[in-house]
Amino acid sequence: MTRRGAPDDVAALVRQLWLPQWSLPPGESAEQLVLGYPASNVVVEPAGVALHGPTTRASTRVLTGTGWAVGALLRPAGVLLFTDRPAQLLDGSAPLAAGPLHERVVRAMAAEDPRARHDRAVGLLLDHVRERAAAADPGLLEEGLLANRLVDLVEAGPGERTPAGLARRLHVSERTLQRLAARFVGMPPGLLLRRRRLQEAAERVRADPGLDLGALAAELGFADQSHLTREFRTVLGTTPRGYARSPRGVVPGDRGAVRPRR
Q: Which first-to-last residue range defines the signal peptide (predicted)?
């Protein structure tokens, strides 16, 4: 997996670019556990271009044969360049009418030199984002920047634990906060906060498998250890201890961890 930060001129719209590429022998496959950011991605693959919405739980993808993808992880301000209803794409995706982009990226990914094909493919996808941004309503983009601040506050750490606290920090009403999250992310603020809290818990458990889970639950604002365990089961499909032991565990925010299968 190759990851690249977004250039300054589109950093308010795109968080990062990511490019997985694989080639597996006949009869072999690789299992990829994926728990993406609670955000949307524009993804170009050999089969087409699609907008993938925010995810609420981990999923497993089985890779076979040869393939690649070129993706842009969108900031909230970039989401409305591609859809005005991100909530409808929660844990799902929709094809995008971007035929010229697809054709150019497919040609770029056929180049022999890996660096050259990645540079060209990423440049084409970023140019597509720039074209959409140039045609967008400036007022809409300005509102999107406020949604960016909302997500930045959520990701800054477990300091703010309630939507009301987020609204106070942004100097908006809770109703405005709910509207921002629905329009630019596709998730309510409460769910964003829960995902961030689980991310912190997963990182801590992975770093220290023997951590006192009761103390961790209290520190991060879970009702108790049972509440923490239920969140792990719901989103990651395992308990905190099981997650810490798993060789293919993946910290929320990563695209995924790959395990070969035969």
A: none
What does the block give as tokens for 70? 């070129």
Contact 180, 150 (CB under 8 A): yes
CA atoms of 254 and 36, how far apart (whole Å): 6
Residue 55 CB contacts under 8 Å (≥ 6 apart), including other chains: 34, 35, 36, 38, 90, 91
Domain ranges for the chain: 2-134, 138-190
Strand partners, 70: 44
Lateral strand order in the sheet of 14-19:
2-5, 14-19, 70-74, 41-45, 48-52, 93-95
Single-letter code of the amino acid located at 127: D
Per the structure block, which two tokens stand in for 197? Answer: 């809290």
Q: Tell me: the pLDDT tens digits for 66-93?
A: 999 999 999 999 999 999 999 999 999 9
Residue type present at position 98: A
Q: What is the dihedral sign for C-alpha 78, 82, 84, 88? A: negative
The candidate with the shortest Cα–Cα distance to 191, out of 90, 81, 72, 92, is 90
197-248 pLDDT, tens digit each: 888 898 899 899 999 999 999 999 899 999 999 999 998 888 999 888 875 4
- pTM (whole model) above 0.90: no
The reply to whether CATH 2.60.120 applies to domain 2-134 is yes
Please tell me the distance from the alpha carbon of residue 96 to that of residue 79, in angstroms, as a whole number.
Answer: 13
Q: Could you identify the residue written with the tokens 């689980």?
A: 198
